[in-house]
Amino acid sequence: MNQPARRGTLASIAAELGVSRTTVSNAYNRPGQLSEELRTKILQTAEKMGYPGPDPIARSLRIQRAGAVGVLLTEELTYAFDDQASVEFMSGVSQACGEMGVSMLLIPAGVQSDGKDATALVNQAAVDGFIVYSVADEDPYLEAAISRGRPVVICDQPAGREGVRFVGIDDREAIKPVVRRLVDAGHRKIGILCIRLDREPNNGPVSQERLAGARMNVQRDRVTGALEILAEAGIDTASVPLVERHINDAGTTEDAARELLENNPDLTAVVCTTDSMALGLLRYAESAGIDVPGDLSVTGFDGIPQAEAAGLVTVRQPSRTKGRLSGEQLAEEISERRKAAKNRKSAPSRAQSENPPAVYLETTVLDGTSIAAPRA
């Protein structure tokens, strides 16, 4: 009976070609140190002898590099691939990873996860660093990522974390132009629809205490910015109805719109803190026979293609650019740490750059047809 052919090894290829094992290794790991002719000869011989190349796990242990970036998400993966803003963000991260020559590992940080689960999952991730995408302040996944000692970049929230690089927008100021347009059009009876303000669910009206203590600063800041414009217009912000939903999908956004409008039939305008929420409101309005903008004016936030197609007046944020810059910031942090280690400088395991940059991107207003003067 024929015995199966033995697969080639690094040593057998070196012996076949009369070169050192280091030379064969360099063909895979340091190609610039070999002539193109020699490298091609080594790779061709390896293929002929059935050698697949260095074991990636062994290689990562040897050089202490995983060749991957971990992206921590607050949503389930199914939702992350449905939400257009998240898709744009991950596309930007993917672009940066491609330029870095590394892979991207998605880690769904469920909103109800506890610290034990978070620590276990983060510690098992074979990555060189983490991009933390839009989590609550004191989120266990964020704490686990920082505690592990790998480089970390936060995108969107929480902002202002000491010693950690940040990429995002000024949500509080970004929402103000579209709210001001409602006020300038004559609206005074205005409601607000928002998504998750904290890790603990609340599907209903939002109290002033919950808003003040909210740990999801993106939504908190958008609501706060909207209320500041309403206050400037002489509107009693304590009387402005605010309805929250914990999940930002089609069913819950339509239900939020129903709750807000059924309980406040005198509203002439609604500020939505996401385009998904605004699109849910438009679907509900159509089913309820409410004309937009004739009976009700609506604004959104994100600038996703579906919002533009629907004619929403909305805030467009550069989600893809945020993802790309988050990846680039992480690459810089990883590079700086490696240089520090190479130069035998002190590089504490939990420390980031001493004065890490915070990158704030500009937003624009997308003109649409969803605002008109209030009904008489």
UniProtKB/TrEMBL annotation:
Sorted UniProt keywords: DNA-binding, Transcription, Transcription regulation
Keyword DNA-binding annotated: yes
InterPro entries registered for this protein in UniProt: HTH_LacI, Lambda_DNA-bd_dom_sf, Peripla_BP/Lac1_sug-bd_dom, Peripla_BP_I
GO molecular function: DNA-binding transcription factor activity; transcription cis-regulatory region binding
Protein name according to UniProt: Substrate-binding domain-containing protein
Keyword Phosphoprotein tagged: no
Region (Disordered): 318-358
